[in-house]
Structures are given as C-alpha cells and as structure tokens.
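Hi support team,

I've been running sequence recovery on a batch of backbones for a student project. Most finish fine, but this one hangs at about 90% for roughly twenty minutes before it completes. I'm not sure whether the input is malformed or the queue is just slow. I've pasted the structure tokens below so you can try to reproduce it. Let me know if you need the job ID as well.

Thanks,
M.K.
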C-alpha cells in the first residue's frame, strides 16, 4: 500500500528511484524494497521520503 503510493508520487514527478535515493540518503535497494512492499518503511524513512516527494506522510498512507 505505502509502496504503491510512493511509486505513484515519484512517477508523477518523473523522478527515478536513484534520484530519490540521492535526495533522501536512503539506499536505492532499500527504496526499491519499500516500493515493492518487500520491506516495511520506518517512520523516519517515511518522513524523509515524503519531504523529498513534496508531500506529507499522511498523503502517502
């Protein structure tokens, strides 16, 4: 669920996963696993990702 919304927001901005990794300082593979719902996102990661995507954490739930 979180991963799908993360992907949707990222794609709307035409932002690659590697660029998001640079903006968040979260490893590319970790972001990929979160986006594919293979790894649960932590609260601190959710905050950083939301900020990089220009939205609130609540918008991603």
């Amino acid at each position: 669920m979180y991963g799908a919304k993360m992907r949707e927001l990222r794609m709307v901005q035409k932002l690659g996963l590697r660029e998001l990794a640079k903006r968040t300082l979260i490893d590319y593979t970790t972001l990929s696993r979160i986006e594919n719902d293979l790894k649960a996102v932590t609260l601190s990661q959710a905050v950083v990702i939301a900020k990089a995507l220009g939205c609130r954490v609540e918008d991603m739930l």
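--
Follow-up from support: It reproduced on our side and the slowdown came from queue contention, not your input. The two ends are 7 Å apart (CA to CA). No action needed from you.
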